[in-house]
Amino acid sequence: MAGLFITFEGIDGCGKSTQAARLVDALRAAGFEVVSLREPGGTAISEKIRALLLDPANAEMADECELLLYEASRAQLVRQVLEPSLARGAIVVCDRDDDSTYGYQHGGRGLDEDLINTCNALGSCGLDPDVTVIFDLAPEVALSRATKGGADRLEGEGLAFQHRIRAAYQRLAEKEATRVRVVDADGGVDEVYARLVACLSDVLPQLRDGEGN
Q: Tell me, what CATH number does 193's domain have?
């Protein structure tokens, strides 16, 4: 794989999607080919799975069913979009990846960590991000933002659920300090973006000193 695979993670309402879009715009302005993706989603099949996963009407969904749907969506995205994009040298910026499964299905739902790791290995088809950025924000603040216009099925799980997810992300950052970086997401969009640029300065030096802003 010749390209660069960057993923953004965090609890609902942390602002990662806004920052992902801003980074994509900056990289394209700097002349890079950038593929912007989201999970679940990014392909016709994966978007249909996304609709199932987030629909509040599917409240009876079993935790194991939820886990496998996420992995199925991911596998399709990897094979159809991610691998070809990286092979031709593109930068891929993905809003969530398999670390979300660790955060939500292990941390949030309480599914066994070894089970999650095994399923993630299958769903990712062995493709790991080069860099993962976790946007860290107090769940009370983040969930209030996320649910202003209503809550999807996962946002509707409430504050305690978000606290468990945040704790799982914090454990992940400690375990995989080389790949995973944490950005303080408390502040204005420009302030957080400046922290993101500093965080990625080793892999994207073109963004330093205001380039690509």
A: 3.40.50.300
Which residue has tokens 């809003």? 95
Can you give the pLDDT at residue 73? 98
| Beta carbons within 8 Å of 150's beta carbon, 6+ residues apart | none
Q: 110 Cβ partners below 8 Å, 6+ apart?
A: 63, 164
Computed over every residue of the chain, the mean pLDDT equals 96
Residue 27 · residue 111 · CB < 8 Å:
no
- Listed in sequence order, the residues at least 6 apart from 87 whose beta carbon sits closer than 8 Å to its beta carbon are 1, 2, 3
Please compute the mean of the pLDDT values over residues 55-83 and round it to a whole number.
98
Q: How many other C-beta atoms lie within 10 A of the C-beta of residue 93?
A: 22
Report how many domains make up the chain.
1
Amino acid (one-letter) located at 21: A
**Pairing between strand 34-38 and 4-9?**
unpaired
Domain, as residue range, for 158: 4-210
Overall average pLDDT of the 75-96 stretch? 98
In this prediction, residue 212 carries a pLDDT of: 47
